[in-house]
Design a protein that fits this description.
The chain has 23 helices and 6 strands. With 516 residues, it is mainly α. The protein is elongated. Mean pLDDT is 90; it is low at 38-42.
């Protein structure tokens, strides 16, 4: 129970902090509760989720709202679709998405407990250690380099990224689909074991096969890297068992493959997905970072490796760790994401390794504390420092900006929007409108476009004819200037404008093409 309360406190901590700060600053909370990157672009992920939810509320299927180029309503994702339905029923957009957070907390905890119970039975202390490490493992050297700021900044970032990916609990910070994906992997493995045990006893057991298939389908749909990992585990089980039970294992393997095929189809047929599929923002980490981050826990875990002797869950345990690493080295797209979930098999092996070395239990408690608390505390401090600024529009909208967006959502003529960054990233979720540039992965030529649009709204684009030509070239019909960009564009753009609407320090410019 203490670990469940700890997971709930950690998972809800960002939301409580953001809501409290929004209330004190009299700002609107956007609904994003992930940790924003230094450049502000990575923090746009949750605002993309909210944009998908808003679009799903209107159309059932979602499209990319971070481009004015044609993009079909082709994206179906269970969480976003259900949240979209809740929005249609009258729930606010942030609440319709954030309602999944407590569900994910319970799902992650229950799945981890079931995983630990299967491998350690009635040994309560060992089970508690596995649950703690599975959920909160944050490699000690990552925490050390983060706190002390020693070493080169690039190496510290690499270690931090490794620790961030390995920490299962922080998927509750803005990445609820990933949290569900992680929780579903042990469900698949435990259900597959039950199905194979039934097959060995010549008693057909369709229920665990159906559970394994359904969980594999959802895990892959919500977080494709878990789908790839599951397929590798299931294929590995079929090989290790020399083909026995292959038909049972094929069912969840095929189920995991279906969403992967869907995402691959999107990347070849939809322009927005084709663009996003070619981004490799985060490549593989160098060997030194992997060795420093994974080395210490892997050293203890190595002593916990033992021959599976034909036991399905023991085979799956080793294959899970191997599949995470194989996915990391084989998959080029955001390779570090493949390490998500590695903490669960690593925790089991580390606890077994500690037991095999017969080290004192009190040292075990200290080791678990060292491998969890410093890293969790660092992320907590980092979040407080990041979220404590009302200037971060990814989290907060001041009253004037919120009023401008409400007017656009309810009263403005139809059409796409041109707005400065990073303010533009909030517009699709708040209004349902497309933006010319807004998201680092989903807006074409983001860096170049952001630079030009910020020149315009900063009042630095001269002469006026150049500003008008630029605005006309974007195809936007509305311009929105937030309170951080107070340059008056009315004079420069007068030949293009039909009206200007002021909302405190925010402005909305309506172009003539919007009224035709």
């Amino acid at each position: 129970m203490a670990l469940l309360l700890g997971l709930a406190a950690y998972g809800l901590f960002p939301l409580v902090a953001l809501l409290a700060h929004a209330a004190s600053a009299h700002a609107r909370f956007t609904g994003a509760d992930g940790l924003i990157g230094a450049d502000g672009v990575l923090g746009a992920d949750q605002l993309q989720y909210l944009a998908w939810v808003r679009d799903a509320a209107s159309h059932g299927l979602a499209s990319d709202l971070f481009s004015l180029s044609p993009s079909g309503h082709v994206y179906l994702q269970p969480i976003f679709a259900i949240s979209g339905a809740l929005v249609r029923l009258g729930l606010s957009l942030p609440l319709a998405y954030l309602v999944w957070k407590p569900v994910a907390i319970v799902a992650m905890f229950a799945a981890t407990v079931a995983w630990a119970r299967r491998l350690f039975g009635d040994r309560l202390a060992a089970r508690a250690a596995v649950v703690a490490l599975s959920l909160f493992l944050y490699t000690p050297l990552t925490a050390l380099f983060s706190w002390t700021q020693i070493g080169a900044p690039s190496f510290r970032f690499q270690l931090y990224l490794l620790g961030y990916e390995l920490l299962a609990a922080n998927k509750l910070w803005g990445y609820v689909p990933s949290a569900f994906g992680l929780a579903l992997v042990p469900v698949v493995l435990l259900a597959a074991e039950r199905a194979l045990d039934g097959d060995r006893g010549r008693r057909p057991r369709p229920r665990p096969v159906a559970v394994a298939a359904g969980a594999a389908l959802l895990a892959s749909w919500l977080h494709p890297w878990q789908g790839i990992t599951l397929i590798l585990i299931l294929v590995g089980l079929a090989v290790a068992r020399r083909g026995r039970g292959w038909a049972i294992l094929a069912v969840p393997a095929v189920a995991a493959g279906l969403p992967l095929g869907y995402y691959d189809l999107l990347s070849h047929t939809d322009p927005a997905w084709r663009l996003a599929a070619h981004y490799e923002v985060i490549g593989r980490l160098p060997a030194l970072a992997l060795l420093a981050g994974l080395g210490p826990p892997a050293l203890i875990a190595a002593f916990g490796v033992r021959r599976p002797r034909g036991v399905v869950i023991e085979q799956a345990l080793l294959l899970w760790a191997a599949a995470c690493l194989a996915t990391y080295f084989v998959n080029d797209s955001f390779a570090p994401h493949a390490l998500q979930g590695l903490s669960m098999p690593l925790a089991v092996l580390a606890v077994r390794g500690w037991q095999r070395l017969r080290l004192p239990a009190v040292l075990g408690v200290a080791a678990i504390a060292l491998a969890t608390i410093p890293g969790l505390a660092f992320d907590g401090r980092k979040f407080i420092r990041t979220a404590g600024s009302s200037k971060l529009v990814q989290y907060y909208l001041p009253p004037s900006d919120a009023q401008a967006l409400d007017w656009v959502a309810a009263h403005a003529p139809p059409g796409g929007v041109l707005a400065p960054t990073p303010f533009a990233v909030t517009i699709p979720g708040q209004t349902g409108r497309r933006v010319w540039v807004g998201h680092g992965y989903w807006s074409r030529d983001y860096v170049d476009r952001a630079r030009e649009v910020d020149r315009l709204f900063g009042g630095w684009m001269h002469p006026a004819a150049a500003a008008r030509a630029f605005v006309a070239s974007t195809g936007a019909t509305l311009l929105i200037a937030d309170c951080r960009h107070r340059a008056d564009l009315s004079r420069a753009l007068r030949p293009l404008l039909t009206s200007t609407h002021a909302f405190g320090c925010a402005r909305v410019y309506v172009l003539r093409s919007a009224t035709r």
